[in-house]
Amino acid sequence: MKLKDLFYLLKNATEQGVDNALLESGQLQEQLSKAEAYRLFGRGNVDRWINEGLISPIQSTEKCSKKSLDRNKLEAIAAASNRITYLPVADR
User: Fold this and answer.
1) Are the C-beta atoms of residues 62 and 26 closer than 8 Å to each other?
2) CA-wise closest residue to 48 among 77, 5, 20
3) Which of 34, 51, 59, 63 lies 20 to 30 Å from 74, alpha-carbon distance?
4) Taxonomically, which superkingdom (predicted)?
5) How many CA atoms does the CB half-sphere of 64 hold within 13 Å?
6) Is the dihedral of CA 55, 17, 19, 27 positive or negative?
7) Paired residues of 69 in beta bridges
8) CB 27: neighbour CB atoms within 10 A?
9) Per-domain residue ranges of the chain
10) d(CA 92, CA 86)
11) Looking at residues 60-70, what average pLDDT do you find?
12) What are the E-state strand segments in the chain?
């Protein structure tokens, strides 16, 4: 295993541990509104993931009719997305 691979494994494990601790302490919500997802992951990305069927809005557990998105699924989809490495249109 290369040092770079070990670095990414430790980085991902640390991020997941922090997320788990924040979820357990109640500082981080499991469900995100669409507006929060847009701020974290970008409107275009979230809309594309919904259109492609990678994630679907679910009915919130609160009394209002607001729909929300699962944070863990969004983070998994974002981590698997390699579109960040694509070249901009001008550079193609």
Assistant:
1) no
2) 77
3) 63
4) Bacteria
5) 4
6) positive
7) 32
8) 8
9) 31-82
10) 9
11) 73
12) 31-33, 58-59, 67-70
Quick: pLDDT tens for 20-33: 888 788 887 888 88
Most confident of 37-41, 65-69, 75-79, 83-87: 37-41
Amino acid occupying residue 75 = E
Helix (H, G, I), strand (E, B), or coil: what is residue 33?
strand
Place of tokens 């929300």: 68
Taking the mean position of all CA atoms in its chain, how far away is CA 7?
Answer: 21
Token pair listed for 89? 């249109």
pLDDT at 22: 82
Contacts of 19 (CB under 8 A, 6+ apart): 28, 75
pLDDT band at 91 (very low <50, low <70, confident <90, very high): low
Lookup result for tokens 């409107």 = 43
